[in-house]
Specification:
Length: about 210
């Protein structure tokens, strides 16, 4: 192979190609041997130009969501069912989140924790797949409630690669090692707008 500096310098066109190593396939799985392949500049541009587009936005319509003060926890629900089999994401009234299209997704969870005054509460969050296996790390927060009207905002952002149709659940635990607590809505001034829900879910897809 000649020295790179000996090749002419040209303005690239979208139909031109560059060499690269194929390390993962379209589902995000490793490719054995990392073979050398060609990529067109047009395909590289399409990949770089991708943006996250919102697929689902939901919130718990109740004033509170109580997982129970125990070490078991419960599935978090986000209101009425949404989506169909043709949707990228479907939400069940029981909290089941179904991904119908493979790809990269961003999952944003927003919660407001609450406890009785002077209580130190622990809230643990996790995601599990259809087999009950935890996906990703546990998220946790611990706070001292200074006022019964006080709300502790919790935001969890995660990114997952969906290789095929799959479903998941989001869980909340209020363990007995902390005081009793729950998720609760934040009341706003009537002249300002609607109250802030206790649990909100926003899912976007890279496309």
């Amino acid at each position: 192979m000649a020295i790179i500096s000996s090749y002419p310098v040209l303005t690239p066109q979208l139909g031109d190609k560059v060499l690269g190593s194929n390390t993962v396939d379209s589902t995000g799985q490793p490719v054995e041997g990392n073979p050398t392949v060609q990529y067109t500049l047009n395909d590289i541009k399409l990949l770089v130009d991708q943006q996250y587009v919102q697929q689902l936005s939901a919130f718990n319509p109740n004033n509170t969501f109580d997982p129970g003060h125990n070490n078991t926890g419960s599935i978090i629900t986000f209101g009425a069912a949404q989506g169909t089999g043709t949707s990228a994401v479907m939400l069940g009234a029981d909290g089941r989140i179904t991904f119908n299209l493979k790809g990269a997704y961003s999952i944003q969870q927003i919660y407001y924790g609450q406890a009785a005054i002077n209580n130190n509460v622990i809230l643990n969050f996790k995601m599990v797949d259809s087999n009950g296996t935890q996906v990703g790390p546990t998220s946790t927060t611990r706070f001292l409630s200074n006022n019964t009207l006080e709300r502790h905002r919790i935001e969890i952002n995660s990114y997952i690669q969906i290789p095929s149709t799959a479903y998941y659940y989001l869980w909340l635990q209020n363990p007995t090692s902390g005081a009793a607590g729950q998720l609760a809505n934040q009341v706003t001034d009537a002249a300002w707008g609607t109250d802030v829900p206790p649990a909100q879910l926003i899912i976007t897809k890279l496309q």
